Amino acid sequence: MALKFDDQGAPFIEVDPNVCLKLDLSEYDDDAECVRKAREELRETPEVVQESLRELRSLLKEHSDLNISVDDDAFLKKFLRPTKYYPQSALNMILGWYKFKANKKFVTDDMSTNRIRVALEEKIVQLLPTRDQHGRRIIFVEMGCKCGNLIV
């Protein structure tokens, strides 16, 4: 059991040959309700998405010190969606993410098989078996828990 990445860069863990924990990075554009919700709550329309990507790419060119692929729409959308497609807010989130990654020991830098096993066995990280009322997966992470002498 170790953290691995698929060809799209999505992390996954093979618990055993029959069980694989994986993030689903697929788009939701085949579900009319999801498309409606994204349009109403995130301003996510094809026009807004394209304009936001264009503006964010322009803003990122001013930060040549960042090692980021400005042509990777999927990567940029990871920052645009939570900021409701406001490019400046997405840039601020990207800069904060890079600052965090540079200043702290990033979570995947020391992701060993043993640490993953302990986190799952001690229920520090739990994937809940049911989805919420909107069909979203729920991951429960016990933050700052007192785990005795466990090092996770």
UniProtKB/TrEMBL annotation:
Sorted alphabetically, which Gene3D superfamilies does this protein's record hold?
N-terminal domain of phosphatidylinositol transfer protein sec14p
PANTHER family xref list: ALPHA-TOCOPHEROL TRANSFER PROTEIN-RELATED, LD41874P
Protein origin, superkingdom = Eukaryota
Q: Which organism is it from?
A: Culex pipiens (House mosquito)
User: CRAL/TRIO N-terminal domain spans which residues?
Assistant: 72-97
Q: Name one GO cellular component term.
A: membrane
This chain belongs to the protein called Clavesin-1
Tell me the InterPro entries matching this sequence. CRAL/TRIO_N_dom, CRAL/TRIO_N_dom_sf
For this UniProt entry, the molecular function terms from Gene Ontology, in alphabetical order, are:
phosphatidylinositol bisphosphate binding
